[in-house]
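Methods — Computational structure assignment.
A single polypeptide chain was analysed. Its primary sequence is given first, followed by the predicted tertiary structure written as structure tokens.
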Amino acid sequence: MFLENTVNPKEQFGWIEVICGSMFSGKTEELIRRLKRAKFAKQKVEIFKPMVDKRYHEEMVVSHDANEIRSTPVPAAANIRLLADDCDVVGIDEAQFFDDEIVTVCNDLANKGIRVVVAGLDMDFKGNPFGPMPALMATAEYVTKVHAVCTRTGNLANYSFRKANNNKLVFLGETEEYEPLSRAAYYKAMLKEKVNAIEVTSEEVLPPQKKWND
């Protein structure tokens, strides 16, 4: 859980909230919900996203169910510090795509009394911690992990399995390229990929079969 008001009014510091999880888990939806509540309370809110994210809209932060809020695309984390200095609340979407300076930027803003709400993937398609997210989660006061529903088992999903044949770490996509999987389903899917790769390699190194005449 997270608090929207500090208990001690004399403490003039903000804080960091991190919303993390797999793809299709509702991270952006939860980010938008919190930011819209802050706007309704007449707080000055600024939202940022990495310039590379243009899946739905160049400027809007858009969730998978088409909920949206206007944002400012930035090429690097340092730009956020310059543009958000006089805000009450700062929202950051797709934080995993930012450079490592995003951690320092978020902490600097919080130290100036700003509430910072960050959303991002906690793991990449290989199941490894994604970019600056581990450091953000470690320094945040509040961390909320949301889950999708596994498309193969119906259980809670916390892995983003890439169906597309692309090994780039940053590869934007939707349901055609990714699906949320549970631990068991993800393990089986990755094992199947390894087996298929071994089979392909074995066929490539086999010598051509000789033809024998009767």
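Note: Residues 15-146 form a domain with the Rossmann fold fold (CATH 3.40.50.300).
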